[in-house]
Amino acid sequence: MNKAEKERRERRQRMLAREQGHTSTMPVPGTSGDVGLRTPQPVRRTPAGAPPAAGGDAPAAQTQSNLRSLTPLLKQRQRRRGVAVGVAVLVIALAIAVFTGAMSASIALLADSVDSFSLYLQRGNAGWPVDTGISEPLQIEELAGGFVELGAEDVVVYSAYGSRVRTFQPGYARPVLAVGGTRFAVYNRAGGELRVCSRTRDLFTRTFEQGILLCEMSANNTLAVVTEADGYTAQLQIFDPSFRQSYRWQLTQKEGTPIAVGFAPDNRRFAAGTLAARDGQLACSVYFMDTAEETLGPVYTATQGSMLLQLDWQSDDRVVAVFDTYIAVLDPRTAAETARYDFGGATLQSAAPGLRQTALLLNIRGGNSLVTFDEDLTPLAEIPARQAFGVTATDTEVYLLCPNAVECYRYDGVQSWARQDLAAHPLAVLDAAETLVFTGTTAEVLAPPEGAA
């Protein structure tokens, strides 16, 4: 048998062996002899978590080991991407908040909350009565349950717990206060400077180019500032709690000069009482404005010859306007009168509008009388007030200020009690966290005398 025939026979035997599943150990011709023909074996995949197989599965096990070693790096990269995306979103949100003013208002609210917490922690050594050091106050206003008192030279602030928070001297010739919920502004009616203060510190100082005529602050510490203006009767600017201007209204001769401003409970709308010349006489109007609108709102025209004294925005649909000849309840949506009481020749001594009920001290036929009203300005009671000179009211009680005494009445005219043991002439009664009475330089809790119901 020749060599070629022998090789053909061997190839047929190898092919037959492969078909029958046998492995040939004979070398492949033309190789170095280390490669043999083997029947292909099925691939077996190792389940996740199973121990690596020995022998021929070693490369797969090595691949899985490499993947496991890369997993922490991949997770770290994913965390970095997540942090980067979160920071980007936060920066965008902060930019939007600052642009819209929401961030500044939130920061202001946080600062006021920190003040409240600090004053609460310091309440241990506080208590009433206190000596304010101001014997002839120009203004006394409630401030976050405590009060701020203005004298000719000094300003003192007390917390709701009876502790003196701060004292300073603004140095103004004609100082005036405008008080909000937790802040106040002291401004100079003889100049153009004002200071906005929290209970514990000065926040902002601003000098206007024109003289300041009037300031008013809302419950959320939004500030309205009325100044003189070239070419106009006045300019009204509104500043948010971070003292950024958010609104401006330049008033013409027809609209007049603002003499009273009152903010709505939403801190966005406001009423402005103005004084202007009409038909050769001075006349008052009340404009109901919205800081989100550029146009004039509804306007109420007062009775000719009546002077506006006070604006009190009691609810979203109720504004009390006190004039020297009558009192009216106005609807801010339409500027229409919904109730009215004319004094009929009586002289107004003092007014105390409540949320729904109202108390007036009127001089009628040469003698003072305390007159109380319901929400429709229908008289509830008329009480002889003798030498009384002032009235303060809460939602349920009326306090009549008399020489060396304070008398307490219900709105139906029934006297609850009389406090006759005051050491001096009462200067004011304040509805703060405690009902306070001011006499001389002293502020103390106004409590019923012993034995009073």
UniProtKB/TrEMBL annotation:
UniProt cross-references to InterPro entries, sorted A to Z: DUF5711 (IPR043765), Haem_d1_sf (IPR011048)
Q: Which residues cross the membrane?
A: 83-111
**Key word DNA damage present:** no
Region of interest called Disordered, as start-end residue ranges on this chain: 1-66
Ranges of biased composition (kind: Low complexity)? 47-61
Q: Where is the composition biased (Basic and acidic residues)?
A: 1-10
Q: Name one Pfam family in it.
A: DUF5711
What are the protein's UniProt keywords? Membrane, Transmembrane, Transmembrane helix
Q: Which SUPFAM superfamilies match?
A: C-terminal (heme d1) domain of cytochrome cd1-nitrite reductase
Q: What is this protein called?
A: Protein TolB
Species name = Candidatus Gemmiger excrementipullorum
